[in-house]
Design goal:
Layout (H helix, E strand, L loop, with lengths): L1 H14 L6 E12 L7 E7 L2 E7 L6 E4 L2 E4 L2 H28 L7 E12 L4 E10 L2 E9 L3 E5 L8 H35 L6 E9 L2 E11 L4 E7 L2 E2 L6 E2 L3 E2 L5 E10 H4 L4 E8 L6 E6 L2 H47 L1
Antiparallel strand pairs: 1-2, 1-6, 2-3, 3-4, 4-5, 6-7, 7-8, 8-9, 10-11, 11-16, 12-13, 12-17, 14-16, 15-16, 17-18
InterPro entries: Ig-like_dom_sf (IPR036179), Ig-like_fold (IPR013783), Ig/MHC_CS (IPR003006), Ig_C1-set (IPR003597), MHC_class-I_related (IPR050208), MHC_I-like_Ag-recog_sf (IPR037055), MHC_I/II-like_Ag-recog (IPR011162)
GO biological process, one term: immune response
Protein name: Major histocompatibility complex class I-related gene protein-like
Amino acid sequence: MAKLSVLFFILFYTIGNAGSGSHSLWALATYINGETPFPEFTVVVMLDDVQVAYYDSNMKHFIYRVNNTPNKMHDDEAQDGAYVFGIIYQSMKERYFHLKHHLNLTEGVQVQQRMSGCEMLDNGEPALIMFKETFNGIFVDHAIYNSMTHFTYDSGTLLVGYYGIRQAYEKALFENVLLPICIKSLKRFLKREKNVVMRKVPPRLRLIKKEVSGGFQVSCLAFGFYPRHINMTLLRDGQPVAEQDLTGGEVLPSGDGTYQLRKSLEVSTEELKKRHNYTCTASHLSLDNKLDVSWESGAERVHLSTLSVLLVMLLIVILLGMFICVMRWRCTASHLELSLQKRERK
């Protein structure tokens, strides 16, 4: 099942990453044939990057998740879901038998996955509707209806002879059935979950440096931000460092509903001697201005030398003060002793 999650992660973040000015609703469906402990058919429904519903062929009803708490859907939503995913279920079963015969498969577990959904602009107008399908990790076909004017269908290499028939069928299905239902469902989910998917959490920015073999690694780390769209750049003396010189650069979930991004640069010992100024700068929807964090290579050694001089001077002052106090105490003791001796003589 871990492999299934990895495949869907790749599908979702390659295509389902809606722009900052839009929202999307995606159904991630899996059809499994063979003996496994999993349901034959499962669907996970995602609003942007938040799971909002779940269905499988064992339960045979939809579970709506409000703040990660399962709840049953309303009747009209359940009917829409049952209709749409009934189409997907039957389509994937028929597709499975065709591919099984085409690839001459007889035994084992076969896994078919399909991502389908729509994207809506901020003004409520539909932007696109699409699906993409894989079979045992191999691309099968892909259709996209973009800007409601351009339809593209790619039948791949496994669906021989399907192109003309499938293109006409998918276009009609997208326009007349799936798009209206998807946009209506997207608006409904967005109204309920707007406090989650439309929230803005500002990033925290760190410039981390650690010693490695042959020099230092300088890393820019932005974390704890939402939504996931962020621009972060590492500057050297005010100039952007080329992306090919950096490692990392992929936005990753943090596990708490926020995201993180790290970019790292290897700095040699020779480069350190030049005392470059490194700056991490980040811009995000939650920020009015950019965040900046800087570090000057070699500055620690200068600061350390200055600090050492200050500490020595402070130590000298303390010792001098102690010496003066001791001398005064001795003087006071001597005067007191002389006074006592004079009184005794009298």
